[in-house]
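tool_call: predict_structure(chain=1)
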Amino acid sequence: MSTDTNHPHYRPEIDGLRALAVVLVILFHLGLRCPGGYVGVDVFFVISGYLITGLIARQVDDGSFSLQNFWLRRVHRILPAQAAMVACVLVYGMSYFLPSDAVDLAEMTRAQQVLGANLHLTAQDHYFSPPFEQVLMHTWSLAVEEQFYLLFPILMIVLLRCGRWISVLAISLLAVSSLVSAVWALRGSPDTAYYQLQCRAWELLMGAGLALLPASVSMRHKWSQLVAAVGLGMILYSAWFYGNKTPFPGVAALVPCLGTALILWSNQQERNLVGKCLAWRPVVLLGLMSYSLYLWHWPVIACLRYFENTARLPQSLVLPAVGATFVLAAVSYRWIERPCRISPGTIPTWRAALPILATVPTLLLASSLVIWGKGFPTRFSPRTQRLAQSITNQPRDSENRKSPSDRLKSSNSPSEFGDPSGRFTCVVWGDSFARMWHGAMESAAQKNNVRCFGFGRSATPPILDFAKYGRGLDSSFEESKNSYVEFMRREQPDLVILAGMWETSYRRPHFEQQLRFTLQTLHDAGLRVAVMLPPPLQDRPVARALALHSAYGHPSRPKGKSWAVYLERPAIRAVYRACEGLAEVIDPGPCFVNAQGIWTVENREGSMYSDHCHVSRVGALRATPLFDELFATLSKTSVGREHGTTSTEE
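tool_result:
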């Protein structure tokens, strides 16, 4: 079961299965009608667990197993090609990426070098909508395997002393526990479920348990054809019928993982038809290159998407991306992977591994220098620097760097800004579309003697009994929402402002009804409520597009959109209907719209947007007069309350 084709335990159909896995992943990242192609990673995990466990078990049985030799072989197998890819990406990024993007790349490089790429990504955006400039995003799966390789051999040494069946039972229990943790994590922290070892270990352990089954538990040849066909069908079904709305990993991940296990099991004794197809020489060759293909495909796609400044690779660039991937993978496989592998029978030494291991501190130092130099912004003109600075002015940044548990804690505790001893109080409840206005509210609140409390969390609309963006109803955050309402009932603020990405919420069922229900709840509590309209969605990230245009003459310079047309969009009309008689609508348009009625995207100070939908700090400050005017009305409201009415007119 080695990857060496001359090894007596080599099974070419496993390399064929690797080829299938990497093709599915590449199709998924290219956006070529393979919405569930991410299951290729799960296929890899099961194969890895199967091969590594078989190798350890054989060596333990014949008394030749050594932890040092095992880890050194993994170093020779994994690190050289990976280090070459990371080094090339880092040099390329420092040559062409905007400063903040170069820093992001360096931070990811640093995490990847200490086997923490998956932990770093847990705190970032979701896998199905990744920041396309994150060129090393795909190394999360390598980190999971590397963490597994560090821990699992020690466990195997202990278990194998107790016998095969005891080992199978213990691994099965661990796998079930890991699967349960993945299902549980999906409810509150899908990114943890997707990226972290404790929620992915069951896939590797499934392969491990299969490898430990005694030879007597083998597949009869007359059934192997059917079993292998079913296994292949399960993998292809999940690849073509899963998507970004599939709760994953969890129970859904059982389908591709079991499919992989069935193919491996049914071909153990004698190769069946599926095994023979997978063992076809061209497919095997693709499988032998699968590691290098996996390493290089995403950096190629991500860099092309970066300069196109789009989240989806244009069709015209698909073939060039595939061609570049195969050329780079072939070079990596022929001149890096193969020469660095240790032949069977050869005992690895630390002396031979030292030059390879030296790449780790070298890349750590290089990435740290980039972070220290803040991406070396002086590479670009002052105008490009001003525009690029808006990319980092995102209200989501500080929260996304927190752990999931810290996010939950912070969402339950309000942020305070404005005048801490203010006579009036205002509660701002919403997602990142609420926090992006805090800068504008700050100075207006201080000027008007207003103390502000900010509640909410990214991707969680300020609507009661309503799902998060792109996900199901989250009970923990529904409890948080109810606690916000209780806070407002108790404190009776002078003003409540709701702000969210209403166009995204509008796509979910019952948006208008639930928004009106929320407003009715607050209205019944005797609160004055206002709903903030978001800026119009742009076709691509504005700040990055403007900066790339300034730096390289990028042709896709964004243009503003008509505010009048935007106000007629169904989502915005639904907000107005929901607010009727219950809340006022805050229209930021007058602060941003020019004489032609177009929402502007930049001024001399920089970009009005940080991405394609959030206003930057520069943009938010344009709305300061709007909040100044709004907060000035609180004194009149207060007078009205003293006279038994909440009217703002005297």
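agent: Strands lie at 415-418, 424-430, 450-455, 495-499, 529-532, 561-562, 584-586, 598-599, 602-603, 606-607. Proceeding to next step.
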